[in-house]
Amino acid sequence: MRLSNLGAIAAVVSLPFIALSAARAEDVGCVSTTVRMLGLANDKICVDSFRDPKVDGVVCHVSRAKTGGVSGAVGLAEDTSDASIACRQVGPIVVKKDLKDGEDVFKESRSWLFKKLQVVRFYDKPNNTLVYLSYSDRVVEGSPKNAISTVPIMPWGKE
Known about the structure:
- This protein has helices at 3-22, 69-73; strands at 26-34, 43-51, 55-66, 83-95, 103-109, 115-124, 129-138, 146-152.
- It is an alpha+beta fold.
- The protein has one domain (3-152).
- The strands form two sheets. The chain has a four-stranded antiparallel beta sheet with strand order 1-2-3-4, with no helix packed on it. A four-stranded antiparallel beta sheet has the order 5-6-7-8.
- The longest helix has 20 residues, at 3-22.
- The model is unreliable at 1-23 (pLDDT under 50).
């Protein structure tokens, strides 16, 4: 099988994983950082929002780089590990299920097979605070790049 055929197969195989992980988040917007010539997709920084599936009243926003060009357009580019996160209380906080430290809250593919952006949650009990950590991992070699956001559990409205 030729290398170009392998690339096409990889793109088709990766699409369901990208779609599944992105289905939990809502697009907020993107800005171009590098303009590609010949009508190819630009490199971008994109922002998505998502709600913690086990904690009502918390919304997180994640920004991350997306690689453009031919490889980015067909889903074969490996995006950088750069990401930022901000989480806020947007209503009364209600924990729907038991929380486990380090539990996945959000995942998104960053390459067609080997790399993903993850957001995990911790509960800082002495300070009554939820801590959200974003980082990228990879099958062979991870990245130390990370970001955190904290949400103190506070009364809301007339609570």
